[in-house]
């Protein structure tokens, strides 16, 4: 099998788990300076290959029966100037990979997707049932009113689990590119009679997560704040809900997806990859503080426009289609993560 993005935080763990399971893994990574630092060399068991390089890919794909595509530019994607990087590496990179796979006769793909395809998430109004809330207004956020409102009556709405058939509502460049990757993969599956599992990762954390960078998820940011002697700064009121899934569980989901394709899973299948144990951002910060014996986190009331308020997935389809159930409870995983090595 071919694994792209194999030197990254998630890809490296996927490589280990697949090799331990007996897969013969051809590991590639473009070693982008933004992710690995300038001049970084690939690890010993990984080739420097950019998925946009059709010629290099075609050479590697001979005899490969499945591709596990983790390579992507990640992060929030809110700087308009980054659009070409997302479109180039993620959209075009996936298109080039799919064409090379088709030419080589490889018809199975596991694609790393993201919960960000769901945009603001799913909400219920007590009076109107499931609703698509309007973006939160500055006036509400400045006044410390952080919940979304019903588009019909203006009442505050409550979050619900997001199933895979929820509408895709990408709101950032990164989300747009993840949605595009899924759409290219779906079209490729239909046109080429191929099979795809798109794994929609939730908030992934774990050992060797990149340190605090503009692109880091909140768990790494909190860790760095604790390491430099501060306490985590929790935005909004800290009650925003997420699903934190350990990188070992994400690697297990990739293995399960490959097994399901081997066992005959057909067509395009999008699947949430989450722990199934929702947790608030304040709970995440509190768990990390407690594990390190630090004072409690500071809830700042600050907000970032464009942040999803609550984004929590339904894990049912992953169990049903892939037999995948996360095994690491976020509270246990975060306790371990409080002292786990990070990558600089
Ligand atoms: C994150 C990633 C997204 C990825 C997704 C799934 C970023 C910026 N976002 O989305 O790309 O696809 O996970 O893995 O990488 N917060 C604080 N204090 C801080 C920073 C953030 O309280 O210092 C809060 C935010 O307001 C938000 C929550 O923590 O409510 C989560 O933030 P973050 O991890 O950055 O973004 P996600 O939206 O969960």
From TrEMBL:
Origin superkingdom: Bacteria
Gene3D superfamilies: NAD(P)-binding Rossmann-like Domain
Domain (NAD-dependent epimerase/dehydratase): residue spans on this chain: 1-123, 165-267
Protein name per Swiss-Prot or TrEMBL: Polysaccharide biosynthesis family protein
């Amino acid at each position: 099998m071919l694994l792209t993005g194999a030197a990254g935080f998630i890809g490296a763990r996927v490589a280990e788990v697949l090799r331990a399971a007996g897969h013969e893994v051809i590991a590639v990574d473009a070693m982008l300076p933004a992710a690995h630092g300038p001049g970084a060399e690939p690890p010993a068991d990984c080739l420097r290959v950019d998925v946009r390089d059709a010629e290099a890919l075609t050479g590697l794909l001979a005899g490969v029966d499945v591709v596990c595509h983790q390579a992507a530019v990640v992060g929030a994607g809110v700087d308009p100037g980054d659009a070409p990087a997302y479109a180039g590496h993620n959209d075009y990179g996936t298109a080039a990979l799919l064409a090379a796979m088709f030419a080589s006769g490889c018809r199975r793909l596991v694609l790393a997707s993201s919960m960000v395809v769901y945009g603001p998430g799913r909400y219920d109004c007590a009076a109107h049932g499931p609703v698509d809330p309007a973006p939160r207004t500055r006036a509400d956020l400045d006044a410390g009113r952080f919940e979304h409102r019903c588009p019909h009556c203006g009442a505050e709405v409550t979050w619900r689990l997001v199933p895979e058939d929820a509408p895709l509502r990408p709101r950032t460049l990164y989300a747009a590119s993840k949605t595009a990757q899924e759409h290219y993969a779906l079209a490729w599956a239909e046109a080429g009679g191929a099979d795809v599992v798109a794994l929609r990762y939730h908030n992934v954390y774990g050992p060797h997560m990149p340190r605090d960078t503009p692109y880091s998820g909140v768990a790494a940011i909190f860790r760095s704040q604790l390491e430099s002697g501060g306490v985590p700064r929790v935005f909004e009121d800290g009650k925003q809900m997420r699903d934190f899934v350990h990188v070992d569980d994400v690697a297990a989901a990739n293995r399960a997806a490959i097994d399901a394709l081997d066992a005959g899973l057909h067509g395009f299948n999008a699947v949430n990859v989450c722990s199934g144990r929702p947790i608030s951002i304040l709970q995440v910060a509190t768990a990390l503080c407690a594990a390190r014996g630090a004072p409690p986190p500071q809830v700042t009331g600050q907000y970032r426009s464009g942040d999803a308020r609550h984004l929590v997935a339904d894990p049912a389809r992953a169990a049903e289609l892939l037999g995948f159930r996360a095994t690491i409870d976020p509270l246990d995983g975060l306790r371990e993560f409080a002292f786990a090595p990070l990558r600089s």
